[in-house]
Design goal:
With about 350 residues, the chain is α+β, with helices and mostly antiparallel strands. It has six helices and 22 strands.
């Protein structure tokens, strides 16, 4: 197992640390890199399935797009249908266009890199950094920074861009994995869907839970009135399954340091679930109305502390542990001192 840890301050007590023909056309193919040549040895399989079996490093969705855009030939004729059945002896040529540059500018924004290789990169995202460009945030994002940092992106879906596998809210800090290749992107997304990738968070919440641990299993969806917010929403009204596991790590008077583990990954999941059980996250400008704690926070005291996943190529486990930001540590220490005087 590969483990990457960044620690700069005491956070826990010592005991806690462990971690057919009609479809053929004659349009010319676009400019490509050298084509991949294959000869079918068995018949009775769809073109896209055959290619997917032969070329495991290219996602099936990407192969289907290449077929649709005229980049596949069967016996020297272009085929644009993924459903064509290949026959024994068929000669198949697949041309992959060079990845096109993304219409975004690279920006030299410092990154705290926890782990990096040719497949993926894991960074410790600071609070305040938006992950992906959007209206109001066309620049200064993590994607802009990654375009500058990663000089030789293989590309995702034929575009030279980093593959965002999961996201963190603007004001949530911590470990975030980004794919550099189609294969890595597909593999990592499959891990999240299968719930084999593990994401663990730390948060400081208002109040003191009555129990030491629990599971919050209530659906989350777009708020029925305020569409900018998420909320606990019944499945029949658009809510989606959301499960969060939690455990108390340290009691701090009327505040608590809680360890959260996501089983699903809905937008604002931990923030919504925490508020739902009566313990909103300190500093959350959307889901908490709690009073000031005397520490200038950039947003909610929520940090993606640990990320554990299977490497897309090697198959071994990669575990990245991200140090909480200074403001999180300051808040924690302030609350410790206060609780010691009670």
């Amino acid at each position: 197992m590969t483990t990457i840890s960044h620690y700069s301050n005491r956070l826990f007590h010592t005991s806690y640390f462990t971690l057919h023909t009609s479809y053929f056309t004659l349009h010319p193919s676009p400019v490509t890199i050298s084509p991949i040549l294959l000869q079918v040895e068995t018949s009775s399989d769809r073109l896209d399935r055959y290619l997917s079996q032969q070329l495991s490093d290219i996602s099936r969705s990407r192969l289907q797009k290449l077929i649709e855009t005229g980049n596949v030939q069967i016996n020297e004729q272009i085929c644009t249908s993924k459903k064509v059945i290949v026959q024994k002896g068929d000669r198949i040529s697949l041309s992959i266009p060079e990845a096109q540059p993304l219409d975004l500018q690279p920006e030299d924004i410092p990154l705290d890199v926890l782990y990096e290789d040719d497949c993926l990169i894991i960074i410790n995202k600071p609070a305040g950094l938006v992950v992906h460009p959007a209206p109001g945030h066309e620049s200064g994002t993590l994607v802009n920074a990654l375009l500058a940092h990663c000089q030789n992106l293989a590309g995702i879906g034929g575009v030279q861009r980093p593959g965002i596998v999961h996201r963190l809210d603007k004001d949530t800090s911590g470990a975030l994995v980004v794919a550099k290749t189609d294969l890595a992107h597909q593999h990592l997304q499959a891990q999240l869907k299968a719930k084999t990738a593990r994401r663990e968070y730390l948060a400081i919440v208002y109040g003191a839970p009555d129990t030491e641990s629990g599971t919050i299993d209530v659906p989350i969806g777009r708020h029925l009135v305020d569409r900018k917010k998420m909320a606990v929403v019944p499945i029949e009204k658009g809510g989606r399954l959301a499960i969060t596991h939690w455990q108390v790590q340290e009691r701090l008077g009327n505040y608590t340091l809680i360890h959260f583990q996501l089983e699903t990954g809905r937008t604002h999941q931990i923030r919504v679930h925490s508020a739902y059980i009566g313990h909103p996250i300190v500093g959350d400008p959307v889901y908490s109305s709690g009073h000031s704690v005397g520490v200038n926070l950039p947003g909610q005291a929520l940090h993606a502390w640990k990320l554990k996943l299977q490497h897309p190529l090697r198959g071994d486990e990669v575990e990245a542990i991200a140090s909480p930001p200074p403001t999180f540590i300051t808040l924690l220490n302030v609350l410790r001192r206060r609780s010691d005087t009670l």
